[in-house]
Amino acid sequence: MSFLSSPVEQYKASFLEGLQELHAEGIMEYYDFQSVSENFAGFLQRLRDEEDRAKIPAHRVPASQFWLIDNGEYIGTFNLRHELNEWLYTFGGHIGYRIRPSKRRRGYGKEILCLGLEKARERGLRRVLVTCDETNIGSKKIIEANGGVFENAVTEEGASVKRLRYWIDIS
Which of 35, 52, 137, 162 is the most interior residue, by most CB within 10 Å? Predict the structure, then answer.
């Protein structure tokens, strides 16, 4: 049975395996594998610090990260932004999620979003914005399967594809 966990040391080995898979795809470049693996405790602290407005830059919003765990193994990451700034309202949304490549096409995407919506509800959010690139058919299906209602498609300056914006009522 899968569940969302706060990032903890217990899942270090499988998280690092997943991070390597994502790096091989050219994704998650903002997490330097070497520094994360060498100072995992510091990495976990940085993730906890992202929840505290006083510990993040003024242009960022507080956010919580959760890991989808199944059979003791890291499957993917769910990011919940506690509020929206202008860029997030237009392009990024409240929610981001990613499944490691070796675990895709097994229903984990739909599950991580479903479980993550409960985390958003627990935080007091009643309606959340979720976005995806128009070319990401899998994510589009996941969002719609979790109640996403399409609002519009927007184009970010310099982007080659439109971003689809969906709202999910979780009240």
Answer: 162
Q: What's the gap between Cα 46 and its chain centre?
A: 16
**Through-space distance between the first and last CA atoms of the chain, rounded to whole angstroms:** 25
Q: What is the pLDDT of residues 73-113, one digit of tens each?
A: 999 999 999 999 999 999 999 999 999 999 999 999 999 99
Give the three-state DSSP class for 150.
Answer: strand
Dihedral sign of CA atoms 22, 27, 25, 149 in order: positive
Cα–Cα distances (Å) from 116 to 6, 69, 87, 132, 143, in that order, read 12, 13, 21, 16, 12
* pLDDT tens profile 136-147: 999 999 999 999
The structural domains of the chain, ordered by start, are 3-125 (3.40.630.30)
Say what the pTM is.
Answer: 0.95
* CA pair distance 151, 149, nearest whole angstrom: 6
Distance CA 117, CA 48 (A): 19
Contact partners, residue 129, CB within 8 Å, separation at least 6: 84, 88, 89, 93, 94, 95, 165, 166, 167
